[in-house]
Amino acid sequence: MPTALITGATAGIGAAFARRLAADGFSLVLVARDEKRLTTAASELHRRYGVAAEVLAADLATGEGITTVEERLREGVDLLVNNAGFGHSGADLDVPVTDELTMLRVHCEAVLRLTMAALPAIRARGRGGVINVASVGAFFPQGTYSASKAWVVTFSESLALRIPEPRVRVMALCPGFVRTEFHERAAIDTSGIPGFLWLSADRLVGSAMRDFARGVPVSVPDPRYKVIAAIARYVPRGVVTRVSAGIGR
Fold first, then answer.
1. Residue 235 contacts by C-beta under 8 Å, 6 or more apart in sequence?
2. Could you give the CA distance from residue 72 to residue 74 in angstroms, rounded to a whole number?
3. What CATH number is given for 3-248 in this structure?
4. Which residues are catalytic?
5. Starting from the edge strand earliest in sequence, which strands make up the sheet with 79-82, in order?
6. Fewer Cβ atoms within 10 Å of its own Cβ: the N or the C terminal residue of the chain?
7. Model-level pTM?
């Protein structure tokens, strides 16, 4: 039975990945900060799908937390989903530098270290891979959040191009607005976001898994956001900057 390790596994996109992979017959290693919530999630997944669900409480904003997950990954998994992340509610220039550094640790350092811890065993088996959850925001200049997610996209694309094993894949997943706890936890006002831009986490994950199976290096799993991402990536940068400035205001 294959094993998947998922960070940020108790809510939102991470929980949707846990449900999908459990339904596909994966044993799970669930990673998050809240051990009680992890235990509840693991019990529910085992009851519903009959799979083993291991609990690993770790805070990826700390070096100790990252090391704990690295050690588990070196024991071997078939799929790593780097999903843990967060947003800021304040304007870019008002966010404390310490908070920005924490974001870079979770979004970049943890993704780098966990990916590199997982890949040797995956490559040795010749199958499996890594899904790094980024964002459509990676294509727009919107502060440290979008910059960190742009790094995730470039890092994932680079690995995908260089891994020689044909059945070992690395993919950046770039969702748009998804109905999860993400914005509420960050105290971000979403009242101005049109209803048609919101995505279902379960449908998002289904599309992501299809792209992963096809070897797509950067998955933008919705036609609406494919158009938005294409515009951001291929129109003149000055236009994208002006649009982002308007969004920021």
1. none
2. 5
3. 3.40.50.720
4. 145
5. 53-57, 27-32, 3-7, 79-82, 128-133, 168-173, 218-219
6. C
7. 0.87
